[in-house]
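Quick check before the chapter quiz. The format below is the same one you will see on the exam, so make sure you can read both the input and the output lines.
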Amino acid sequence: MSDIILETERLYIRRWTLDYTDELHNLMSDNRVHRYTGDTVWTNEKTKEYIKFNINREKLSLDDFHGAVILKESNEIIGLTGLNPYLLKQPEIEWQLGVKFWNKGYATEIGKAVIQAAFKNTNIIKIFGMVNPENIASMTVMRKIGMICLGVRDFRGEQDMFYEILR
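Here is the expected output.
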């Protein structure tokens, strides 16, 4: 079985292995990555738990997955992406990239690929995106990948800007 979940022009989205722990921890231990997420800096242990959780999932399908985002030219991890369960047949898209990989178009490339593959290969009818209203960069990406703004709504106890894209 291939470890590649998706491939774009510049990126691979791969299944997690524990070999990725140090690289992912280096990215996720930077507090700037979490500025708008409500999360805290990841410890090495939290990084391992995240990877083990994703390795041990009983299923991996394009309507509920998390993968490592790998830059093809250097084979280095630049972040994570996936679709999280939200509503029936309506997951939430997610990505987090290391700071040195911001403003290079990678989030847009990832978002388009995840949406296209999920709509082509699953019975998903809609994908949501939730973003802190202060995170202008992520809201820009949401628009670039074809998502429509629905306005501010409550999400996990926070007021987030909601976006959606329909099949």
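If your answer matched, good. The beta strands are 4-7, 11-14, 65-71, 76-87, 90-97, 126-131, 148-155, 158-166.
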